[in-house]
Amino acid sequence: MKASIATVSISGDLKEKLQAIANAGFDGVEIFENDFLAFDESPRQVGRMVRDHGLEITLFQPFRDFEGMPEPLRGRTFDRAERKFDLMQEMGTDLVLVCSNVSAVAMGGIDRAAADFFELGERAARRGLRVGYEALAWGRHIHDHRDAWEIVRRADHPNIGLILDSFHTLSRKIDVNSIRSIPKEKIFIIQLADAPLIDMDLLYWSRHFRNMPGEGDLPMLEFMKAVAATGYDGYLSLEIFNDQFRGGSPTAIAVDGRRSLIYLGDQVRRAESSSLTLPPMPARAEVDGIAFVEFSVDEAETSVLSDRLRSLGFRHVWRHKSKRVDVFRQGDINLVVNTDPDGFAAAAYALHGQSAYAMGLWVDDAEAAVARAVALGAERFEQALNPGEIEMPGVRGVGGGILYFLDHKSALARIWEIEFDPVNDDADLQLVALTGIDHVAQTMRYEELLTWLLFYTSILNTHKTPMVDIIDPAGVVRSQVVESESGSLRITLNGAENRNTLAGHFIAETFGSGIQHLAFATDDIFAAASALSANGFATLMISPNYYDDLEARFGLEPAFTDRLKAHNILYDRDDHGEYFQLYSPTYGEGFFFEIVQRSGYRGYGASNAIFRIAALRRHLRPIGLPKL
What is the CATH number of the domain that holds 332? Predict the structure, then answer.
């Protein structure tokens, strides 16, 4: 598979774009005309710069309002085309994209358009160039790739072919199986773009909300399966118009783009036999659960965090044989407290302060999981090992933290017994009966959200849920969940757009994205709340007004509402069951714990978010005041 991306897809000037595209591992680049026109170098110099980066110019685009024009406009279109051909030859590319006409004066007619393209093909052939025709979803007469193909077929010229763009086909819900009968030699290039499902004008949707394959909601796999059925083996090229991408990091967006193409190609290869040539990679990892979450802390803060974990019902069960690392356990939950002065944990503390900087996942094959992640552009994490330690496969994750992989078929299954000594924790505290980690909440800048959705869903056998707006008194936080079908892994990804929200404060004050809260599961939240109270654990105080409304909204019995209120437990219900939530106050710059009871309920209590955020914000240090 050869991968290309249009320069319009990423931010920066042309030089910056090309550097990012080359570094991400693309083979080619589409030169968007406006990017060239805004650049100071000549076409010949631009072509040389592209080739110096090891890239090929796959396409020059776009050439607009060509076919079906009345005279004298028709004659001018061919004059314009000749000028574009001059530029292409200087630049060193042989393919131009002609998009279907949107002019109000354009005349319809398949044969008229075919005649125009035959003449254009003759002119292109004299220069050794090719012309690709694309049906814009909002074209005046041609807005369906089937009609565009009929024009190309009737033109019957070797230098005239079809350009298929997934957005233009899928946004109009055109049957993709119509692609299967198109001869592969007449498909000059495939352009790819996904998008969230939004009911709006097609042009506006296309110009502002496209994203990488796998980041949106369009049936990209079905489109590509139809393309693969033709035997097409040319370039797959990304053409993404997105306001967020235009203001983002060109390096990050280019890496996302390359990852999206590899992931999509892998899906096609696994779905059916195809002509795509891809390096082999393992399948998406099956996640059995969260093995541990690891905190980096300073020696002076260790006792405070340890006491807090004990009040939550955790017991100190392991101490590392050679490092200042301790393990606290309850049910299937392992929390690692790392105060070692050497290694990555110390570096994470120096940058972020106390933080949950690493997470380990139980997967079917740890080495296969990390191999797939690296093949998809993730950075493998490695650090020096002490004698007797086991190498735990891992990659860099959200906020530069670590995502580790463990499995039950290697020595990793016995990591605690091998590297740690048992500890007898005789703290006189009640068990809280927490059974596991229900979900992990990671907070990031909004512009990072799509990056990490693609990261998780391409590496792990998970799916993403629809985006939800979390209402904070100081703004809106966009939230989307990555989860496995069984519920063995649930990660809520929260994108903050300003620093005044609780999520934005966390990012600003901890210098980056990361895990902001852990939600523990219990089978009896009232018993858990009683045990927490007995242990001296302070729960988050919820406004009494919330419970008055709750009772009326759900028709709850007053005695039941009183029980919720007495323990500061929030409540929600959906078509599948009930959901109970209990929170800690915030610690440090916005980290907190949550305890939930899930009885068939499939969501995450979004309707309660505004109330718990308002309560949590009361515990934050006001912005501008010094840290204590």
Answer: 3.10.180.10
